[in-house]
## 1
Amino acid sequence: MTQAPSNAKDKVEQTDNYLLQLIRQGDCMSFTTLFKKYYKVLVLFAHSFVKDKDVAEDLVQSFFCKLWEDRLTMAKITNCKNYFYIAIRNRCHNYIRNNKLIPVPFPDNLTEDNLLSTIIEEEISVKLIEKIQLLPEKCRNIMLMKIQGMDNKTIAATLHIREETVRSQIHRGKEILKNHFQMAYPALWIVPSFLESIFFF
């Protein structure tokens, strides 16, 4: 009898590995599922190195194309998520080297722990934008302006409202987002500090 996965992480890895098995057999739906699951966060991850959205998208798209093209000869992957992130990191490194750009430091001692930390931050960044889009209109607009780097005074002047209103809406938005992420990721101490670092509270 097959032993059930011991935790959520095991279940995710088991699902991803099963999808990879189906991809090796030419299953397009499984490929699409993995693509949709990882595309946004991998683009964000690539962008942190190449600092160009179009290039980041091209690198991730070419990675998935290569994954599909080589599906029959693909080596066995024991950790799909780690494999994807390391592959994208290497593609970014090659792009920077081949185009003689100023390199972003790449950690030589990339371990599962610090890779996991990076993955968590990239995934939360994507989810953060998605959840901001669901906030009430006034709160949403102010929060989007905030993450673009605008200060409260500028936001107030742009929207023709008082700074007190801006602060109130930011506080409201932050509390909604914190509650969501603390419920969605109860074991991740990184969430509160991560949100605070984004909104400069």
## 2
Amino acid sequence: MGSTSLKNWMEILLAAAIAFVLTLIPIVIGEFQITLAILPLIYFGLRRGLAKGLAASLLAGVALLALHQGQSNFTTVFVTHVGPYAFIGITGLFARNTQRTLNNKRFPNAALNIITATTIATILLVIWQLLTQGDTENILISGVLTLVANAIILMLVARFSPKAYIPKDTPFLSRKEKSKLLND
């Protein structure tokens, strides 16, 4: 592939597309719904950082806006479909520490970063859902289930494939930290 910029945009589009597809596949347990659509957005934020994470999550939100545009007025569609996903990329704030701790093979510290990022993303999702729906108890229990499911999946990826969080062109590790000679 060509430039780094093109690779980044392809990765942004891929994360947004996977999130978009996952919104179409609901996971329902009784009255509660697990939202796995935020999973690729959290992962991408932890992999690429704040700016690119926000770009991917905003793109996923815009794709959902386009899908649901004809259902009701713009404001309702924006609040119910764009809002919950547009700010998930804020998890990119944890990218630097997550990548450094995984690079240094300190999984407990990386797990804490992953759980914190997932918690923030889930809280954002739940707040937006509470703004649009009235069933507080179901939304809160669904939020806890979503948090647990996403955190477990992200921690399993970190445990068994920590390099999946660290791209080769990461700005969060110095050349010295990236060197295989020094870190083996």
